[in-house]
TrEMBL record:
GO terms for molecular function: prenylcysteine oxidase activity. Residues 1-18 form the signal peptide. Keywords: FAD, Flavoprotein, Glycoprotein, Oxidoreductase, Signal. The lineage of its organism: Eukaryota, Sar, Alveolata, Dinophyceae, Suessiales. This is Prenylcysteine lyase domain-containing protein. Transmembrane segments: none annotated. InterPro entries: FAD/NAD-bd_sf, Prenylcys_lyase, Prenylcysteine_Oxase1. Its cofactor is FAD.
Length: 506
Protein backbone atom coordinates (compact mmCIF):
# COMPACT_ATOMS: atom_id res chain seq x y z
CA UNK A 1 0.00 0.00 0.00
CA UNK A 2 1.39 3.42 -0.93
CA UNK A 3 2.00 5.99 1.82
CA UNK A 4 -0.97 8.08 0.53
CA UNK A 5 -3.34 5.10 0.39
CA UNK A 6 -2.28 4.01 3.88
CA UNK A 7 -2.92 7.58 5.14
CA UNK A 8 -6.39 7.68 3.56
CA UNK A 9 -7.23 4.27 4.94
CA UNK A 10 -6.17 5.25 8.41
CA UNK A 11 -8.05 8.56 8.22
CA UNK A 12 -11.20 6.70 7.21
CA UNK A 13 -10.81 4.34 10.10
CA UNK A 14 -10.93 7.14 12.68
CA UNK A 15 -14.03 7.35 14.84
CA UNK A 16 -16.45 10.14 13.91
CA UNK A 17 -16.03 13.02 16.36
CA UNK A 18 -17.80 16.33 15.79
CA UNK A 19 -15.94 19.35 17.05
CA UNK A 20 -17.16 21.87 19.58
CA UNK A 21 -16.52 25.57 19.08
CA UNK A 22 -17.20 28.46 21.48
CA UNK A 23 -17.89 31.91 20.08
CA UNK A 24 -17.61 34.68 22.68
CA UNK A 25 -19.75 37.76 21.99
CA UNK A 26 -23.09 37.85 20.17
CA UNK A 27 -22.74 41.10 18.24
CA UNK A 28 -22.57 41.15 14.45
CA UNK A 29 -19.00 39.83 14.56
CA UNK A 30 -19.73 36.76 16.70
CA UNK A 31 -23.07 36.24 14.96
CA UNK A 32 -21.40 36.31 11.57
CA UNK A 33 -18.75 33.84 12.79
CA UNK A 34 -21.48 31.42 13.90
CA UNK A 35 -23.51 31.97 10.72
CA UNK A 36 -20.60 31.30 8.36
CA UNK A 37 -19.16 28.47 10.44
CA UNK A 38 -22.56 26.79 10.30
CA UNK A 39 -22.27 26.88 6.50
CA UNK A 40 -18.89 25.14 6.75
CA UNK A 41 -19.48 22.47 9.38
CA UNK A 42 -22.08 20.54 11.34
CA UNK A 43 -20.05 21.00 14.51
CA UNK A 44 -21.54 22.10 17.81
CA UNK A 45 -21.38 25.90 18.01
CA UNK A 46 -21.94 27.53 21.40
CA UNK A 47 -22.49 31.29 21.49
CA UNK A 48 -21.63 33.05 24.78
CA UNK A 49 -23.11 36.49 25.46
CA UNK A 50 -22.52 38.46 28.67
CA UNK A 51 -25.76 40.44 28.29
CA UNK A 52 -29.22 38.93 28.53
CA UNK A 53 -29.82 39.56 24.83
CA UNK A 54 -27.75 39.32 21.67
CA UNK A 55 -26.79 42.38 19.62
CA UNK A 56 -23.91 44.17 21.34
CA UNK A 57 -23.52 47.50 19.59
CA UNK A 58 -26.64 46.85 17.53
CA UNK A 59 -29.30 47.76 20.08
CA UNK A 60 -32.85 48.61 19.09
CA UNK A 61 -35.39 50.29 21.33
CA UNK A 62 -38.87 51.80 21.12
CA UNK A 63 -38.77 55.51 21.88
CA UNK A 64 -41.71 57.88 21.50
CA UNK A 65 -43.49 55.09 19.60
CA UNK A 66 -40.69 55.00 17.04
CA UNK A 67 -38.23 52.13 16.54
CA UNK A 68 -34.75 53.55 17.01
CA UNK A 69 -31.27 52.08 16.74
CA UNK A 70 -29.28 53.23 19.74
CA UNK A 71 -26.06 51.83 18.24
CA UNK A 72 -25.20 50.80 14.66
CA UNK A 73 -27.97 51.69 12.24
CA UNK A 74 -26.95 52.71 8.73
CA UNK A 75 -26.15 50.02 6.17
CA UNK A 76 -24.47 50.90 2.93
CA UNK A 77 -26.62 49.53 0.13
CA UNK A 78 -23.69 47.61 -1.35
CA UNK A 79 -22.57 46.03 1.94
CA UNK A 80 -23.19 42.49 0.77
CA UNK A 81 -23.14 40.80 4.13
CA UNK A 82 -25.36 43.17 6.11
CA UNK A 83 -27.75 43.68 3.20
CA UNK A 84 -27.73 39.92 2.52
CA UNK A 85 -28.43 39.04 6.16
CA UNK A 86 -31.28 41.55 6.26
CA UNK A 87 -32.77 40.02 3.15
CA UNK A 88 -32.44 36.44 4.30
CA UNK A 89 -34.00 37.26 7.69
CA UNK A 90 -36.92 39.00 5.96
CA UNK A 91 -36.08 42.44 7.37
CA UNK A 92 -37.45 45.46 5.58
CA UNK A 93 -35.72 48.81 5.12
CA UNK A 94 -37.23 51.83 6.87
CA UNK A 95 -39.33 54.18 4.85
CA UNK A 96 -38.60 57.73 5.90
CA UNK A 97 -40.26 59.55 3.05
CA UNK A 98 -41.41 62.32 5.36
CA UNK A 99 -37.83 63.45 5.98
CA UNK A 100 -35.93 65.78 3.69
CA UNK A 101 -32.59 64.79 2.16
CA UNK A 102 -30.67 67.82 3.35
CA UNK A 103 -27.32 67.65 5.08
CA UNK A 104 -26.30 70.83 6.87
CA UNK A 105 -22.86 71.84 8.14
CA UNK A 106 -23.23 73.66 11.46
CA UNK A 107 -20.42 75.44 13.31
CA UNK A 108 -22.37 76.24 16.44
CA UNK A 109 -23.16 79.78 15.24
CA UNK A 110 -24.31 79.42 11.67
CA UNK A 111 -25.29 76.82 9.11
CA UNK A 112 -22.30 77.10 6.77
CA UNK A 113 -23.84 75.20 3.90
CA UNK A 114 -26.59 72.73 3.00
CA UNK A 115 -26.45 69.92 0.48
CA UNK A 116 -29.49 68.29 -1.05
CA UNK A 117 -28.72 64.60 -1.47
CA UNK A 118 -31.78 64.20 -3.72
CA UNK A 119 -30.40 66.67 -6.19
CA UNK A 120 -26.85 65.65 -6.84
CA UNK A 121 -26.47 68.07 -9.75
CA UNK A 122 -27.31 71.03 -7.52
CA UNK A 123 -25.13 69.69 -4.75
CA UNK A 124 -22.23 69.18 -7.16
CA UNK A 125 -22.48 72.80 -8.31
CA UNK A 126 -22.65 73.98 -4.72
CA UNK A 127 -19.67 71.83 -3.79
CA UNK A 128 -17.59 73.16 -6.69
CA UNK A 129 -18.55 76.73 -5.89
CA UNK A 130 -17.66 76.36 -2.22
CA UNK A 131 -14.69 74.02 -2.35
CA UNK A 132 -13.22 74.48 -5.82
CA UNK A 133 -11.71 71.33 -7.31
CA UNK A 134 -11.38 69.52 -3.98
CA UNK A 135 -14.47 67.34 -4.48
CA UNK A 136 -13.08 66.25 -7.85
CA UNK A 137 -9.84 65.23 -6.15
CA UNK A 138 -11.55 63.32 -3.35
CA UNK A 139 -14.41 61.55 -5.15
CA UNK A 140 -12.24 59.28 -7.39
CA UNK A 141 -10.08 58.31 -4.42
CA UNK A 142 -13.15 57.38 -2.37
CA UNK A 143 -14.46 55.30 -5.27
CA UNK A 144 -11.10 53.59 -5.70
CA UNK A 145 -10.83 52.65 -2.01
CA UNK A 146 -14.39 51.39 -2.06
CA UNK A 147 -13.68 49.39 -5.22
CA UNK A 148 -10.60 47.78 -3.66
CA UNK A 149 -12.48 46.92 -0.49
CA UNK A 150 -15.10 45.23 -2.63
CA UNK A 151 -12.54 42.50 -3.37
CA UNK A 152 -13.15 40.91 0.05
CA UNK A 153 -16.36 39.18 -1.07
CA UNK A 154 -14.70 37.19 -3.83
CA UNK A 155 -11.75 36.29 -1.63
CA UNK A 156 -13.89 35.10 1.26
CA UNK A 157 -16.33 33.44 -1.12
CA UNK A 158 -13.41 31.40 -2.45
CA UNK A 159 -12.59 30.37 1.13
CA UNK A 160 -9.52 32.55 1.63
CA UNK A 161 -8.69 33.34 5.24
CA UNK A 162 -6.21 35.85 6.66
CA UNK A 163 -3.92 35.40 9.66
CA UNK A 164 -3.73 39.09 10.50
CA UNK A 165 -5.83 42.21 9.87
CA UNK A 166 -2.86 43.74 8.05
CA UNK A 167 -2.70 40.74 5.68
CA UNK A 168 -6.42 41.10 4.91
CA UNK A 169 -6.14 44.84 4.26
CA UNK A 170 -3.02 44.37 2.15
CA UNK A 171 -4.83 41.84 -0.03
CA UNK A 172 -7.44 44.56 -0.65
CA UNK A 173 -4.73 47.16 -1.35
CA UNK A 174 -5.97 49.51 1.38
CA UNK A 175 -3.50 48.80 4.19
CA UNK A 176 -1.34 51.88 3.45
CA UNK A 177 -4.39 54.06 3.95
CA UNK A 178 -4.58 52.88 7.55
CA UNK A 179 -1.05 54.13 8.21
CA UNK A 180 -1.68 57.79 7.51
CA UNK A 181 -4.15 60.29 8.92
CA UNK A 182 -6.96 61.59 6.73
CA UNK A 183 -5.62 65.11 7.23
CA UNK A 184 -2.16 64.18 5.86
CA UNK A 185 -3.57 62.04 3.10
CA UNK A 186 -5.96 64.72 1.85
CA UNK A 187 -3.31 67.44 2.14
CA UNK A 188 -1.14 65.24 -0.11
CA UNK A 189 -3.95 65.27 -2.69
CA UNK A 190 -4.06 69.06 -2.56
CA UNK A 191 -7.54 69.13 -1.00
CA UNK A 192 -8.73 72.53 0.18
CA UNK A 193 -8.65 73.12 3.94
CA UNK A 194 -12.25 74.31 4.03
CA UNK A 195 -13.44 71.04 2.46
CA UNK A 196 -11.52 69.11 5.12
CA UNK A 197 -12.75 71.21 8.06
CA UNK A 198 -16.37 71.13 6.96
CA UNK A 199 -17.24 67.97 5.02
CA UNK A 200 -14.47 65.59 6.01
CA UNK A 201 -14.58 66.44 9.71
CA UNK A 202 -18.36 66.68 9.57
CA UNK A 203 -18.74 63.15 8.19
CA UNK A 204 -16.21 61.57 10.56
CA UNK A 205 -17.62 63.40 13.60
CA UNK A 206 -21.00 62.00 12.63
CA UNK A 207 -19.76 58.47 11.96
CA UNK A 208 -17.01 58.14 14.55
CA UNK A 209 -17.35 61.19 16.81
CA UNK A 210 -13.74 61.95 15.81
CA UNK A 211 -12.22 64.47 13.41
CA UNK A 212 -10.00 63.77 10.39
CA UNK A 213 -7.11 62.76 12.64
CA UNK A 214 -8.42 59.23 12.04
CA UNK A 215 -6.79 56.98 9.49
CA UNK A 216 -7.42 57.72 5.84
CA UNK A 217 -9.11 54.37 5.19
CA UNK A 218 -11.78 54.99 7.86
CA UNK A 219 -12.24 58.50 6.48
CA UNK A 220 -12.72 57.44 2.87
CA UNK A 221 -15.24 54.84 3.97
CA UNK A 222 -16.97 57.54 6.01
CA UNK A 223 -17.10 59.88 3.02
CA UNK A 224 -18.49 57.17 0.77
CA UNK A 225 -21.70 57.33 2.74
CA UNK A 226 -21.98 61.03 2.16
CA UNK A 227 -23.22 60.12 -1.29
CA UNK A 228 -20.27 58.83 -3.30
CA UNK A 229 -21.04 55.51 -4.94
CA UNK A 230 -24.11 54.23 -3.11
CA UNK A 231 -26.85 54.87 -0.57
CA UNK A 232 -27.41 54.02 3.04
CA UNK A 233 -30.52 52.63 4.64
CA UNK A 234 -31.69 51.48 8.07
CA UNK A 235 -34.02 48.62 8.95
CA UNK A 236 -37.64 49.18 9.93
CA UNK A 237 -37.29 46.82 12.89
CA UNK A 238 -33.74 47.88 13.72
CA UNK A 239 -30.37 46.26 13.20
CA UNK A 240 -30.49 44.20 16.39
CA UNK A 241 -32.80 41.88 14.47
CA UNK A 242 -29.83 41.01 12.24
CA UNK A 243 -27.82 39.91 15.29
CA UNK A 244 -30.79 37.81 16.43
CA UNK A 245 -31.06 36.17 13.02
CA UNK A 246 -27.35 35.35 12.95
CA UNK A 247 -27.36 33.92 16.47
CA UNK A 248 -29.98 31.35 15.41
CA UNK A 249 -27.20 29.42 13.63
CA UNK A 250 -25.70 28.55 17.01
CA UNK A 251 -26.41 25.11 18.45
CA UNK A 252 -26.76 26.78 21.86
CA UNK A 253 -26.96 30.41 22.93
CA UNK A 254 -25.72 31.05 26.46
CA UNK A 255 -27.16 34.47 27.31
CA UNK A 256 -26.18 36.33 30.47
CA UNK A 257 -23.05 34.18 30.51
CA UNK A 258 -19.87 36.29 30.85
CA UNK A 259 -16.68 34.52 29.84
CA UNK A 260 -13.92 35.20 32.36
CA UNK A 261 -11.15 32.88 31.24
CA UNK A 262 -10.00 30.62 28.43
CA UNK A 263 -7.51 27.92 29.43
CA UNK A 264 -5.58 25.50 27.26
CA UNK A 265 -6.65 21.98 28.06
CA UNK A 266 -6.55 18.54 26.54
CA UNK A 267 -5.50 19.70 23.06
CA UNK A 268 -8.27 22.33 23.07
CA UNK A 269 -9.62 24.95 25.44
CA UNK A 270 -11.75 25.19 28.55
CA UNK A 271 -14.03 28.22 28.62
CA UNK A 272 -14.83 29.46 32.10
CA UNK A 273 -17.82 31.75 32.48
CA UNK A 274 -20.10 33.25 35.10
CA UNK A 275 -23.85 33.36 34.77
CA UNK A 276 -27.08 32.83 36.65
CA UNK A 277 -26.13 29.25 37.39
CA UNK A 278 -22.76 30.24 38.90
CA UNK A 279 -19.40 29.34 37.44
CA UNK A 280 -19.43 27.13 34.39
CA UNK A 281 -16.56 25.28 32.67
CA UNK A 282 -16.89 23.68 29.29
CA UNK A 283 -14.32 22.02 27.02
CA UNK A 284 -14.03 23.08 23.36
CA UNK A 285 -11.86 22.28 20.37
CA UNK A 286 -11.68 25.93 19.36
CA UNK A 287 -12.66 29.38 20.62
CA UNK A 288 -13.47 32.53 18.64
CA UNK A 289 -13.19 35.74 20.67
CA UNK A 290 -15.56 38.16 18.95
CA UNK A 291 -15.49 41.02 21.39
CA UNK A 292 -12.94 43.81 21.87
CA UNK A 293 -10.66 42.58 24.65
CA UNK A 294 -10.04 46.17 25.76
CA UNK A 295 -13.66 46.35 26.93
CA UNK A 296 -13.91 43.07 28.80
CA UNK A 297 -11.77 41.10 31.20
CA UNK A 298 -10.99 37.66 29.82
CA UNK A 299 -7.88 35.84 31.04
CA UNK A 300 -6.18 34.05 28.17
CA UNK A 301 -3.60 31.26 28.14
CA UNK A 302 -0.02 32.51 28.59
CA UNK A 303 0.75 31.16 25.11
CA UNK A 304 -1.76 33.56 23.46
CA UNK A 305 0.27 35.76 21.18
CA UNK A 306 0.23 39.11 19.41
CA UNK A 307 -2.67 40.67 21.23
CA UNK A 308 -1.61 44.03 19.92
CA UNK A 309 -1.50 47.27 21.75
CA UNK A 310 -4.64 48.01 23.77
CA UNK A 311 -6.80 50.42 21.79
CA UNK A 312 -8.46 53.41 23.32
CA UNK A 313 -12.20 53.59 22.66
CA UNK A 314 -14.14 56.74 21.85
CA UNK A 315 -16.95 57.44 24.29
CA UNK A 316 -20.09 58.49 22.48
CA UNK A 317 -23.14 59.82 24.30
CA UNK A 318 -26.31 59.03 22.39
CA UNK A 319 -29.33 61.15 23.27
CA UNK A 320 -32.79 60.69 21.79
CA UNK A 321 -35.18 63.57 22.28
CA UNK A 322 -38.85 63.80 21.50
CA UNK A 323 -39.85 67.45 21.61
CA UNK A 324 -40.75 70.63 19.80
CA UNK A 325 -37.73 71.98 17.95
CA UNK A 326 -36.60 75.54 18.47
CA UNK A 327 -36.88 76.68 14.86
CA UNK A 328 -34.47 79.57 15.38
CA UNK A 329 -31.72 77.42 16.96
CA UNK A 330 -29.94 76.94 13.65
CA UNK A 331 -30.55 80.52 12.55
CA UNK A 332 -32.72 79.37 9.65
CA UNK A 333 -35.96 81.08 8.81
CA UNK A 334 -37.75 78.00 7.68
CA UNK A 335 -40.26 75.38 8.80
CA UNK A 336 -39.20 72.36 10.86
CA UNK A 337 -39.71 70.13 7.82
CA UNK A 338 -37.18 72.18 5.88
CA UNK A 339 -34.41 72.18 8.47
CA UNK A 340 -31.79 69.62 7.34
CA UNK A 341 -32.63 66.13 8.60
CA UNK A 342 -28.94 65.50 9.10
CA UNK A 343 -26.61 68.06 10.56
CA UNK A 344 -22.85 67.59 10.64
CA UNK A 345 -20.70 69.83 12.81
CA UNK A 346 -17.20 71.24 12.45
CA UNK A 347 -14.45 70.26 14.89
CA UNK A 348 -13.93 73.88 15.96
CA UNK A 349 -17.66 74.40 16.45
CA UNK A 350 -19.22 75.52 19.70
CA UNK A 351 -21.99 72.97 19.18
CA UNK A 352 -22.50 70.72 22.22
CA UNK A 353 -23.37 67.83 19.91
CA UNK A 354 -21.25 66.22 17.18
CA UNK A 355 -24.16 65.29 14.96
CA UNK A 356 -27.93 65.65 14.75
CA UNK A 357 -30.29 63.34 12.89
CA UNK A 358 -34.08 63.53 12.64
CA UNK A 359 -35.82 60.16 12.97
CA UNK A 360 -39.40 61.26 12.63
CA UNK A 361 -41.59 64.33 12.32
CA UNK A 362 -44.89 63.57 14.04
CA UNK A 363 -48.34 64.86 13.11
CA UNK A 364 -48.33 67.41 15.97
CA UNK A 365 -45.12 68.96 14.58
CA UNK A 366 -42.91 67.42 17.27
CA UNK A 367 -39.72 65.65 16.23
CA UNK A 368 -37.75 62.59 17.31
CA UNK A 369 -34.07 63.41 17.02
CA UNK A 370 -30.87 61.47 17.69
CA UNK A 371 -27.83 63.40 18.91
CA UNK A 372 -24.26 62.14 19.30
CA UNK A 373 -21.90 64.03 21.57
CA UNK A 374 -18.54 63.66 23.29
CA UNK A 375 -19.85 64.76 26.67
CA UNK A 376 -23.24 64.15 28.25
CA UNK A 377 -25.71 66.79 27.03
CA UNK A 378 -27.15 68.76 29.93
CA UNK A 379 -30.86 69.50 30.33
CA UNK A 380 -30.10 73.19 29.61
CA UNK A 381 -28.42 72.31 26.33
CA UNK A 382 -31.38 70.16 25.34
CA UNK A 383 -33.86 72.86 26.30
CA UNK A 384 -32.05 75.39 24.11
CA UNK A 385 -32.67 73.07 21.16
CA UNK A 386 -36.10 71.85 22.28
CA UNK A 387 -38.09 74.39 24.33
CA UNK A 388 -40.64 71.62 24.92
CA UNK A 389 -39.15 68.22 25.73
CA UNK A 390 -41.61 65.32 26.01
CA UNK A 391 -39.16 62.47 26.47
CA UNK A 392 -35.39 61.88 26.60
CA UNK A 393 -33.42 58.65 26.34
CA UNK A 394 -29.67 58.58 26.98
CA UNK A 395 -27.19 55.81 26.33
CA UNK A 396 -23.41 55.93 26.69
CA UNK A 397 -21.17 53.80 24.52
CA UNK A 398 -17.56 52.85 24.33
CA UNK A 399 -18.44 53.16 20.72
CA UNK A 400 -15.48 52.47 18.42
CA UNK A 401 -11.69 52.52 18.71
CA UNK A 402 -10.00 55.87 18.31
CA UNK A 403 -9.19 55.25 14.72
CA UNK A 404 -5.88 57.10 14.41
CA UNK A 405 -3.19 55.40 12.33
CA UNK A 406 -1.48 52.70 14.37
CA UNK A 407 1.99 51.41 13.39
CA UNK A 408 1.96 47.83 12.16
CA UNK A 409 4.06 46.47 15.05
CA UNK A 410 1.21 47.39 17.40
CA UNK A 411 -1.42 45.37 15.51
CA UNK A 412 -2.80 42.09 16.79
CA UNK A 413 -2.99 38.77 15.02
CA UNK A 414 -6.32 37.07 14.30
CA UNK A 415 -4.80 33.78 15.46
CA UNK A 416 -3.75 33.85 19.10
CA UNK A 417 -3.23 30.11 19.36
CA UNK A 418 -3.86 26.94 17.32
CA UNK A 419 -7.61 27.06 17.81
CA UNK A 420 -7.90 30.45 19.50
CA UNK A 421 -9.05 33.15 17.08
CA UNK A 422 -9.53 36.84 17.90
CA UNK A 423 -11.69 38.54 15.29
CA UNK A 424 -12.30 42.01 16.73
CA UNK A 425 -9.05 43.59 15.64
CA UNK A 426 -10.20 44.38 12.13
CA UNK A 427 -12.12 47.23 13.73
CA UNK A 428 -8.79 49.03 14.17
CA UNK A 429 -9.03 50.03 10.51
CA UNK A 430 -12.69 51.12 10.49
CA UNK A 431 -15.62 50.34 12.76
CA UNK A 432 -18.86 49.29 11.11
CA UNK A 433 -21.29 46.41 11.11
CA UNK A 434 -20.02 45.23 7.71
CA UNK A 435 -16.43 45.19 9.00
CA UNK A 436 -17.65 43.10 11.97
CA UNK A 437 -19.37 40.69 9.55
CA UNK A 438 -16.21 40.36 7.44
CA UNK A 439 -14.14 39.75 10.57
CA UNK A 440 -16.63 37.09 11.67
CA UNK A 441 -16.43 35.29 8.36
CA UNK A 442 -12.63 35.37 8.47
CA UNK A 443 -12.84 33.89 11.97
CA UNK A 444 -15.08 31.10 10.66
CA UNK A 445 -12.60 30.29 7.88
CA UNK A 446 -9.64 30.31 10.27
CA UNK A 447 -11.53 28.09 12.67
CA UNK A 448 -12.33 25.58 9.94
CA UNK A 449 -8.62 25.37 9.15
CA UNK A 450 -7.77 24.99 12.84
CA UNK A 451 -10.29 22.16 13.22
CA UNK A 452 -9.00 20.43 10.10
CA UNK A 453 -5.46 20.71 11.43
CA UNK A 454 -6.64 19.29 14.75
CA UNK A 455 -8.29 16.38 12.94
CA UNK A 456 -5.07 15.75 11.04
CA UNK A 457 -3.05 15.83 14.27
CA UNK A 458 -5.47 13.41 15.89
CA UNK A 459 -5.29 11.20 12.81
CA UNK A 460 -1.51 11.21 12.93
CA UNK A 461 -1.29 10.37 16.59
CA UNK A 462 -4.03 7.74 16.25
CA UNK A 463 -2.16 6.21 13.31
CA UNK A 464 1.00 6.18 15.32
CA UNK A 465 -0.75 4.52 18.24
CA UNK A 466 -2.47 1.99 16.01
CA UNK A 467 0.67 1.23 14.08
CA UNK A 468 2.34 0.62 17.38
CA UNK A 469 -0.42 -1.79 18.35
CA UNK A 470 -0.34 -3.27 14.87
CA UNK A 471 -4.02 -2.93 13.87
CA UNK A 472 -6.60 -0.32 12.99
CA UNK A 473 -10.29 -0.38 13.79
CA UNK A 474 -13.19 2.07 14.07
CA UNK A 475 -16.15 3.43 12.16
CA UNK A 476 -15.76 5.38 8.92
CA UNK A 477 -14.87 9.03 9.41
CA UNK A 478 -17.37 11.65 8.32
CA UNK A 479 -15.91 14.84 7.01
CA UNK A 480 -17.77 17.77 8.53
CA UNK A 481 -17.44 20.07 5.60
CA UNK A 482 -20.29 21.66 3.74
CA UNK A 483 -19.77 23.57 0.53
CA UNK A 484 -19.32 27.30 0.98
CA UNK A 485 -22.43 29.35 0.36
CA UNK A 486 -21.82 32.80 -0.99
CA UNK A 487 -24.19 35.50 0.25
CA UNK A 488 -26.26 37.00 -2.50
CA UNK A 489 -25.66 40.65 -3.17
CA UNK A 490 -28.75 42.63 -2.27
CA UNK A 491 -29.27 46.26 -2.97
CA UNK A 492 -32.25 47.93 -1.34
CA UNK A 493 -31.71 50.88 -3.61
CA UNK A 494 -32.43 54.43 -2.70
CA UNK A 495 -34.71 53.94 0.24
CA UNK A 496 -32.81 55.48 3.11
CA UNK A 497 -31.53 58.94 2.61
CA UNK A 498 -29.81 59.58 5.88
CA UNK A 499 -26.05 59.42 6.10
CA UNK A 500 -25.71 59.10 9.83
CA UNK A 501 -22.97 56.48 9.65
CA UNK A 502 -21.35 54.62 6.89
CA UNK A 503 -20.60 50.99 6.69
CA UNK A 504 -17.69 50.06 4.50
CA UNK A 505 -18.87 49.28 1.08
CA UNK A 506 -18.69 46.10 -0.85
C1 LIG B 1 -23.47 54.76 18.69
C2 LIG B 1 -22.95 53.90 17.58
C3 LIG B 1 -23.36 54.12 16.27
C4 LIG B 1 -22.90 53.33 15.25
N1 LIG B 1 -23.40 53.51 13.99
C5 LIG B 1 -23.08 52.62 13.03
C6 LIG B 1 -23.76 52.66 11.77
O1 LIG B 1 -24.65 53.47 11.58
N2 LIG B 1 -23.38 51.77 10.82
C7 LIG B 1 -22.42 50.84 11.05
O2 LIG B 1 -22.13 50.05 10.13
N3 LIG B 1 -21.79 50.74 12.24
C8 LIG B 1 -22.12 51.60 13.24
N4 LIG B 1 -21.53 51.49 14.46
C9 LIG B 1 -20.47 50.51 14.66
C10 LIG B 1 -21.04 49.09 14.77
O3 LIG B 1 -22.19 49.11 15.59
C11 LIG B 1 -19.99 48.18 15.38
O4 LIG B 1 -18.79 48.29 14.64
C12 LIG B 1 -20.41 46.71 15.34
O5 LIG B 1 -21.74 46.55 15.73
C13 LIG B 1 -19.46 45.93 16.24
O6 LIG B 1 -19.91 44.59 16.33
P1 LIG B 1 -19.05 43.52 17.14
O7 LIG B 1 -19.80 42.27 17.09
O8 LIG B 1 -17.66 43.55 16.63
O9 LIG B 1 -18.94 44.08 18.62
P2 LIG B 1 -20.10 44.24 19.71
O10 LIG B 1 -21.37 44.59 19.05
O11 LIG B 1 -19.56 45.14 20.73
O12 LIG B 1 -20.28 42.76 20.29
C14 LIG B 1 -19.48 42.24 21.31
C15 LIG B 1 -20.39 41.39 22.20
O13 LIG B 1 -19.57 40.69 23.15
C16 LIG B 1 -20.25 40.67 24.39
N5 LIG B 1 -19.25 40.44 25.43
C17 LIG B 1 -18.33 41.30 25.91
N6 LIG B 1 -17.59 40.70 26.84
C18 LIG B 1 -18.04 39.44 26.95
C19 LIG B 1 -17.66 38.33 27.77
N7 LIG B 1 -16.65 38.41 28.64
N8 LIG B 1 -18.35 37.17 27.64
C20 LIG B 1 -19.38 37.07 26.75
N9 LIG B 1 -19.77 38.09 25.97
C21 LIG B 1 -19.10 39.26 26.06
C22 LIG B 1 -20.88 42.06 24.44
O14 LIG B 1 -21.94 42.10 25.39
C23 LIG B 1 -21.35 42.23 23.02
O15 LIG B 1 -22.66 41.75 22.85
C24 LIG B 1 -21.98 52.29 15.51
C25 LIG B 1 -21.56 52.04 16.82
C26 LIG B 1 -22.06 52.83 17.84
C27 LIG B 1 -21.65 52.52 19.26
Amino acid sequence: MSEMARWLFLCCSLPCVAHKVAVVGAGINGGSAVHFLRQLTDDELVLYEAEREVGGRTYTQRFANVTVDVGGTAIYSKNRYMAGFAKSFGLQPSADDDLNSLIGIWDGQSMRTELNMDSMAMSALKLLFRYGLSPLRVIPVVREAVGHFDGIYDLQGAGQSFETPAELLRALRVFNLTQTSAYDFLAGLGVDDRFVRELVDGASRCNYNQPGTLNAFAELISLAGAGVGGHVFSLANGTQAVARGLARSASRQLLGERVTEVQESNGGYVVISEGKGGIRREQFDGVILATPLELTKIRLPASAKQLGRGREYQTTYTTFVHGMLNKTYFGLETSVAEIPSDIFTTESSTSPFSSYGVHKILADGSVVVKLFSRTQLTDEQLHALFPKVFEVYRYTWKAYPKLQPLPLEQWASFRLGRGLIYTSWLETSASAMEVAAIAGRNGALLMREALQAKTARTARSTRERKEFRGFARGSPRQVHNKPLLIEQAYDYGRVFKKATHLGPVQ
